[in-house]
Amino acid sequence: MAMMDPASWLFVLVVSIVCSIACAIVSMKKGYRGAPVFAWFAAGFVFSVFALIAIILAPHHHEA
To answer: Among 5, 16, 27, 31, who pairs with 40 as Cys (CB 3.0-4.6 Å)?
Structure first.
């Protein structure tokens, strides 16, 4: 079984980093603050595009 070459791993890493930053930015724009923003950042790094889709579809956070 062939391993992924370093260029493929670099691509996966770059996509994960970009998605994690995008998730954090979108979550802040939707009104999330503090720990939830870090959670979305981590989710974006681990689940990449799927987390980005989830935060885009998530409702806006309203302070009570």
So the answer is: 27
- Residue 20 to residues 1, 4, 26, 63, Cα–Cα distance (Å): 30, 22, 10, 24
Rg of the chain over all Cα atoms, to the nearest angstrom: 14
Judge whether 44 and 27 are in contact, CB under 8 Å: no
The pTM of this model reads 0.87
What region, left, alpha or beta, does residue 33 occupy, with left being phi > 0 and alpha being psi -120 to 50 degrees? beta
